[in-house]
Structures are given as structure tokens and as C-alpha cells.
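[[Encoded backbone]]
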Amino acid sequence: MSAPAPPRRRLRILQVSHAWNEGGSALYAAALSDALAPHAEVRRFGPESVPGRRNRGFGATVRDPAAERAFAEAVVGVDVVHIHHLSGLGASLPALAAGAGATLVVHLHDYWLACARGQLVDQGGARCVGPDPERCARCLAPDLYAPVPPPLARRLPPRRGPIDARDDAWRATRRATHRFVSPSRHVADRLGVEAELLPYPLLQPVPPAPPSPGGPLRVLFLGSLIPSKGPDVLLAAYSGLPAGAATLHVVGPSPPWRGSTRWADDLVARARSTPGVRVDGMLGRDGVITALHAADVLVVPSTWEENAPLVLSEARAAGVRIIASDIGGIPEVAPGARLVEAGSAGALRDALAAEARAPRMRERPAPAPGLAEHARAVLDLYARAGARAPA
């Protein structure tokens, strides 16, 4: 009688992210890691995993030797490497993962793999038609020539070498990746890759919002106070409404833009001097639900080609009405939203005025998948990508 086969060990998964508690993709990566833990051996790799890490300029977006050494140790014996974001780690890691024999899954949360700015916007925040070596070299001149002052850097000849190296890394990533996955089709189409569509889950349950008490329209913005998120467009649109027609609650952090928080600080000062506007910084997850429940309409006025903002799923689960820019993956992930031209304060003002005149109705709640269900879908994706724990 033959001996029974030894039990198969659990799948070993390495989740890779630039952060774990700041920004939608980072929060998702952390939540997914936790949701996978009952089913597999899960470890995390990020900038905090790199001993002696320091900022090494634009070249480190392509190769960071310290990150490569740390990653080469972390990937030993791993069955699946799931990359969420490589900012602060370098674009060379996907090829190293494949070279180590791991199944490589790359999540498309934004455009960083092909665009060093991550959002396909130029130095001034205008949308870019797409990566191009000459265009990228001009756009990134202040970074490529740092610490030369930006005005002078823009007058110097474009530096193609670092751009070409980053393009080579992106091509190597496409060759090495077993599965790309994206919460919207738009990002995959813009990057020119085939990806499995996997909508974001709710990171925590969101109960339906209570009925509106009526009165002025209660408008909510949830997001970082940076130009590409459009909070300035919303403030201009709100300021154009008749007095007393609405209130505005602005919620979000003030991260640096162009090396300082001056843009956000100026916006907050203008907002706080505008009647009917309240400004809060970061809120915990419970605070986000409270803010949603106290709103009649969520506004997502982004000017960059968003992928699938998590807040849209949360608003839909709560039954909160949505006004959003007609851009990127937003129309895919927020069907039924009132869509407006991105960057147009006039179009957004008209949409807000229409909402203010309409009855204060809730939408039918549209819950997204929960984390447990989503984790099972991700495990199935790993299996279809070829991941298999050896005996």
C-alpha cells in the first residue's frame, strides 16, 4: 500500500506596494493582504523593507540597487508576487520576480509603470496624450536635471537616456507579467495591455445612508487636495451657486505638490473663507462613512484620467448621489452618476444647481463585493495565472 502524498503547503504570496495606509491603492493592498492571510502565507514588501533607503532621484524610479537586493531576498521561495505600486522601489522588480520563478501579477492602479508622474498629466497638470520619449523628456526635465532650477532645466536639451531606460523597464514588465489586473478597462486600454477586470471591493461594509433632511444641498468632496483631483474646480463651481442653495464639506489630506503644500494651503484658506464650506483633513474609515451619510451628493471633479476611485463604490453602497467628471474609468465604475466635463467649473456649477432644485432622493444602494469574496476571486486569478504551491 503506497504512502499517502504529503500535504501541499500553503501558497506563499508577496504583496508589493509603495505604502500601506495612504491613498486608495495602498489601502486596498493592505486590506487584500489581510483578507488573503487565512488562505495563504502572505508577506508585504515596500520601501520600509529596504535597509538604508533614501531618495536617489529619477534614476531610482528605474533601478534602485538597495531595493533590488532586498527584493531578491524577499522573493526566495515565493509562489506569487502581486505588485500594486513600485513608486519608491524601482521599475526593475517585476523582471526580478519572474527571474526568481514566481508567478507575477501586476495590478494597474494608475499609469506609473509607463508614466513617471503616474497620472498621465504634465508638469502643469494638463492631461497627456500618452507616453513618448521626447515629450516625456521635456515634461520631466526638472526631475532629470535636478537640482538645477526648473526654469533653467526646461531650457536645457532633453535627456533621453533615463527615459529610454524607463521604457525598457516597462517593456520588460510586460514580458515578465503572467497576469495584469485592473478595476477598470480604461487604464489597461490606455497602457495597451490585456488585463483581467476585477472591480475593487468595499474595504469595509457601508450601510445605506439615512433619508435626507431636506434644506440646502449637502455637497461632499473626499480626496487629496491636489490639482488633478479638482477640488479647486469644485470650489469655483460651488461659489457660483445662489447664496444658501448648498453647503460644501471638503475632506482630504494636503500632500505636497511640486515639492510643497502651498497649493493645498491656499485652497484650504479660500475654502474656509467661503460661506457654507467646512474643511477637514484625513478621516478614519468610520469618519468617511459618517461624512457620506451626511451628504446628499458626492462630487468627484477629477481632471486626470481616474481609474476607479474607491469612494465611488462607497457612495454607491450608501445610496448617495454622484456628480463626477466624464473621464477615465469613472463612467465604468459609477453607472448612473451625473457626468460633467472634466475641469469645467461652469458645467459642474450647472450640475450642482440641478441637484439643488431636485428632490433630495437617495439612490438604490449598490453594494460592491466584500473583501472575503474579493480575496477568493484573487486566489482564483492566481491559479489561472499559473500559481501553484509545491508539495
